[in-house]
C-alpha cells in the first residue's frame, strides 16, 4: 500500500524542509515545488492526496494556479489548502 502524497507549492526552501519532515513523521510522502508552473507540471505525474498552496508565489499566484486546477475536469476534486504569511505592515 502506498503512502498518502502531499504536494507543497511554496518558494520557501525552509518551508519545504519543515513540511517534508512533518509529513514523514506521520507516514506521508511529500514533494515540494517552488512555483505554479513546476507544480502544474507535477500534476501531470502525480495525484496528491493533499496540496498545500502558498498564495504568494513567484510568477502566477497560488490563486491563479488554483483557478486553473478547478477549470480542469480531471483535477477539479483535488484537495487544496491555501495559506500565506505576511510579515510586513504593508502586506
Task: Please explain how this structure is put together.
This protein has helices at residues 13-25, 36-42, 62-71, and strands at 5-9, 29-33, 50-54, 80-83. The chain is α/β, with parallel strands linked by helices. It has a 4-stranded parallel beta sheet, with helices on both faces. The longest helix has 13 residues, at 13-25. The chain is globular and about 35 Å long. The termini are far apart.
Provide key terms for this protein:
91 residues, alpha/beta
Short description:
The chain is α/β, with parallel strands linked by helices. The chain has helices spanning 13-25, 36-42, 62-71, and strands at 5-9, 29-33, 50-54, 80-83.
Determine the mean pLDDT: 92
With helices defined by DSSP (H or I, 4 residues minimum), what is the helix count?
3
Q: Please describe the biggest sheet, giving its number of strands, its sense, and whether it closes into a barrel.
A: 4 strands, parallel
- Shape descriptor: globular
Give the ordered list of helices and strands. EHEHEHE
Oligomer: single chain
Q: Show unreliable segments.
A: none
Helical fraction equals 25-40%
* Beta-strand share of residues: 15-25%
Number of strands: 4
The end-to-end span amounts to 44 Å
**Integer-rounded radius of gyration:** 13 Å
Structural class: alpha/beta
Strand order of the biggest β-sheet? 2-1-3-4
Amino acid at each position: 500500500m502506498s503512502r498518502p502524497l502531499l504536494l507543497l507549492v511554496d518558494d520557501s526552501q525552509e518551508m519545504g524542509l519543515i513540511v517534508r519532515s512533518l509529513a514523514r513523521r506521520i507516514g506521508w510522502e511529500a514533494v515540494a515545488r517552488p512555483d505554479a508552473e513546476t507544480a502544474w507540471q507535477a500534476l501531470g505525474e502525480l495525484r496528491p492526496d493533499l496540496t498545500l498552496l502558498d498564495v504568494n508565489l513567484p510568477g502566477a499566484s497560488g490563486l491563479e494556479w488554483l483557478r486553473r486546477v478547478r477549470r480542469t475536469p480531471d483535477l477539479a476534486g483535488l484537495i487544496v489548502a491555501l495559506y500565506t504569511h505576511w510579515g510586513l505592515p504593508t502586506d
